[in-house]
Amino acid sequence: MVFRTVRLMVVLCPLIIAGACNRYIEGHYPQGTVQGEANVPPVNYRADTVAFLRTYLNDPRGIRDAAITEPVLRDVGRAKRYALCVRFNARKTTGGYEGSKERLIVFLAGKLDTMIDARRDDCSGMTYQPFPELERL
């Protein structure tokens, strides 16, 4: 009986989490999540991005080829949000470099909300600028 319950939990938990994450990324925020205007342009987007990546990356030292775009209002899932793209080549836990990857960073009410791996068309048409602040971590 215990093994049956454990197997059921192993199957159901990832499905529940995936469903919740999918709704979150598509712009379905529970009422009361955002106080005030959801689409306030981010003011300190560079500093917010550096602070987030300092905690997100396993090894934030020695980042190469960092570049960032200006935040623009765009469709993210089913909602319009300010978003930007950031591209960098970070170290893996083994010490080597993982290769340059693009990430899409979404802002909610002027604050960094989430970061996801960018799909092919997420960052197309956006102009990258050098991002030396990230390389100095």
Structure description:
- The protein is an alpha+beta fold.
- The chain has two domains: 1-33; 36-135, no CATH class.
- It contains three helices and six strands; from the N terminus they run ααββββββα.
- Strands 1, 2, 3, 4, 5 and 6 form a six-stranded antiparallel beta sheet that branches.
What is the makeup of the main sheet? Answer: 6 strands, antiparallel
Instruction: Tell me the β content.
Output: 25-35%
Q: What is the N-to-C succession of helices and strands?
A: HHEEEEEEH
pLDDT < 50 runs, ≥5 residues: none
The count of DSSP E runs of length 2 or more, i.e. the number of strands, is: 6
Brief sketch in words of this structure:
29% of the residues lie in helices and 28% in strands. The chain contains 3 helices and 6 strands; from the N terminus they run ααββββββα.
Topology summary:
Layout: H1 2-25, H2 45-56, E1 64-68, E2 72-76, E3 79-89, E4 101-108, E5 111-117, E6 129-130, H3 132-135
Antiparallel strand pairs: 1-3, 1-6, 2-3, 3-4, 4-5
